[in-house]
Specification:
Elements lengths: L2 E6 L22 E2 L2 E2 H10 L4 E8 L4 H10 L6 E5 L4 H11 L7 E4 L9 H14 L1 E7 L4 E7 L2 E8 L5 E10 H14 L6 H7 L5 E4 L12 H17 L1
Parallel strand pairs: 1-4, 1-6, 4-5, 7-11
Antiparallel strand pairs: 2-3, 6-10, 7-10, 8-9
Bound molecules: cytidine-5'-monophosphate.
């Protein structure tokens, strides 16, 4: 059984800057203590020996920049690249089509903008996919969750959803190659667009197990998130020094 990882990194980071305009630098290329977010994500997966290949989906114009980083950080022959698409699902779909995976190999998909994923969680996700067929990393909800109706002025609460029924979906999200490909093919045939892989797997009738996530594995999304990531990193360095 081989393990393949897809890192969609073709976003343009429209939510990062205030006012709806996107930053000149997409968030996967912003640096955390001098290392680009994307490179940190790649390194986390390369640290797991069982990972056979990492496939990064990038925009054509950014390919040379990513190749330069891959060389500079000596990431080695396990790293590959494909062309990204206009939406995350398309970027992942392009990579999935390019993988030379066998039906029972494991495919994990991880947001390139979640650079603090730890090797132990990656290992647990691989094990869960091998055991259940499909699995995602999820964080239990701690806030009380409300269902709302959007209004011109904001929103009105319509119901309270018991939080024990809720998890926040993170990544990695994975499945056996044959199940991931089936879910993507069915979504494409039906014109379904989801914001994660689990939504495609679920609608294909595939049961998806949940592996515990952590607050550290957050998605770099808004101004201040780079500082938050640096804070987590410094804290773990201090912790490991005892
Ligand atoms: O936009 P969002 O935060 O959901 O992006 C999650 C991940 O998907 C990011 O790593 C981003 O680079 C990637 N993405 C992509 N292709 C797109 C849009 C987003 O690979 N067209």
């Amino acid at each position: 059984m081989q393990v393949f990882v897809i890192l969609p990194a073709a976003g343009i980071g429209t939510r990062m800057a205030a006012g709806g305009t996107h930053t000149a630098v997409p968030k996967q290329f912003l640096e955390i203590d001098g290392v680009p977010v994307l490179i940190r994500s790649v390194k986390a997966f390369l640290a797991v020996k069982r990972v056979d290949a990492v496939c990064i989906a990038v925009r054509g114009p950014e390919r040379a920049r990513v190749e330069a980083h891959v060389t500079a950080h000596k990431l080695g022959p396990r790293v590959h690249m494909v062309e990204g698409g206009d939406h995350r699902q398309e970027s992942v779909g392009n990579a999935l089509a390019a993988l030379e995976c066998h039906p029972d190999d494991v495919v994990l998909v991880h947001d390139a903008v979640r650079p603090l994923i730890d090797p132990a969680t990656i290992e647990r996700t691989i094990d869960a996919v091998a055991k259940h067929g499909a699995a995602i990393v999820g964080l239990p909800a701690v806030d009380t969750i409300k269902q709302v109706e959007r209004t011109a002025e904001g929103a009105i609460v319509t119901a309270t959803i018991p939080r024990e029924l809720i998890i926040h979906a993170q990544t990695p999200q994975g499945a056996l190659c044959k199940l991931m490909r089936r879910a993507f093919a069915e979504a494409e045939a039906d014109g379904f667009a989801g914001t994660d892989e689990a939504s495609l797997l679920e609608r294909a009738g595939i049961e998806v197990a949940v592996v515990p996530g952590s607050a550290r594995n957050f998605k770099i999304t808004q101004p201040g998130d780079i500082e938050l990531a640096e804070f987590y990193l410094r804290r773990s360095t201090t912790d490991s020094r005892g």
